[in-house]
Write a structure and sequence with these properties.
By secondary structure, the chain is mainly alpha-helical. The protein has 15 helices and no strands. It starts with a helix and ends in a 5-residue tail after the last helix.
Length: 301
């Protein structure tokens, strides 16, 4: 390789690196999870043959709005991210992206996603997505350093993506959409508390007030985990009872729910890192399998 080629490659490498840094701001793995739940909401809420053009439009708008919102979240939390081992290498605290760059990037991408949803899909899906942005950035994010109730508030935007999909398919906000919301809402509490249990020392450094941080004994944490796992077991059966999914889904949802509840009970009895990690793994198995079975055994509207 001659020196001219090397000179040309250096600017190209820098551009690629910058693009990768901005992509990291948007948290692509989290966006992927948002899109999966939105896809399931659209698919189970569709007629016999889903409108795949509408689906792609919904996914694009949702991806833009979610990525922009997550970038704005990193802008807001840049100082606390710098204090925690698990987040200090993110683009802003690591100095690869400036705070002002992250702000304008996040704002532009979020607005683009919301406007696209309103024009290409429908106003209801755009409104629900805007609600996610507002609750996540203006309520959940600041509450994390003030009250353990932030977990409940944060579960609201996390549970709304399947609702976006459902209203994009049907054009209305009905009971089926709220059942999907309830499943995601209840799942998030034990999932997030398991993560907080594992990283409570890190969260304490940043002053984040999750239950495992402010109450190291774990009694309230355990009660929240077990009660939400039990409620999830019951609510996850509703799609079959409401005619949204079939009998196969019902059986799988029951088995998954019992397994998830058992993992929560074991953590409540043991209160160990191993128990928290086991619950986290159970949550990561539970949701994808449940959503997959809901999609495979759906009853078209």
């Amino acid at each position: 390789m001659n020196s001219n080629t090397q000179t040309l490659d250096l600017p190209t490498a820098r551009v690629i690196r910058r693009i990768a840094d901005f992509c990291e701001l948007a948290k692509p793995r989290v966006v992927l999870m948002v899109l999966i739940t939105a896809f399931v909401g659209f698919y189970v809420g569709s007629a016999d043959v889903p409108d795949y053009s509408q689906l792609l439009k919904m996914l694009l708008g949702t991806a833009l709005a979610a990525g922009g919102t997550l970038a704005l979240n990193q802008f807001i939390e840049r100082r606390s991210d710098a204090l925690m081992t698990r987040t200090r290498h993110r683009p802003i605290p690591d100095g690869r992206v400036t705070a002002i760059e992250a702000f304008w990037f996040g704002l532009a991408v979020t607005i683009a996603g919301l406007v696209y949803l309103a024009i290409a899909v429908n106003a209801i899906s755009a409104g629900i997505t805007a609600l996610i942005t507002v609750t996540y950035l203006l309520f959940y994010t600041p509450m994390k350093r003030k009250s353990p109730l932030c977990l409940i508030v944060g579960a609201i935007p996390g549970a709304l993506p399947p609702v976006i999909g459902c209203v994009a398919a049907r054009g209305i906000l009905d009971v089926d959409a709220w059942v999907l919301f309830a499943i995601l809402f209840l799942w998030q509490v034990p999932h997030t508390l398991a993560i907080a249990w594992l990283y409570r020392e890190d969260y304490a450094k940043a002053g984040i007030q999750f239950l495992p941080v402010i109450e190291p004994g774990g009694s309230s944490t355990n009660r929240q985990i077990v009660s939400h796992c039990a409620a999830l077991l019951a609510v996850s059966l509703l799609p079959t009872l409401l005619g949204l999914a079939g009998a196969i889904y019902f059986v799988v949802a029951f088995v998954l729910g019992v397994g998830f509840l058992v993992s929560g009970l074991r953590l409540a009895m043991e209160s160990t890192m191993i128990g928290a990690r086991r619950l986290l793994y159970a949550s990561l198995i539970y949701l994808p399998v449940l959503l997959l079975m809901m999609a495979l055994d759906r009853v078209p509207s």
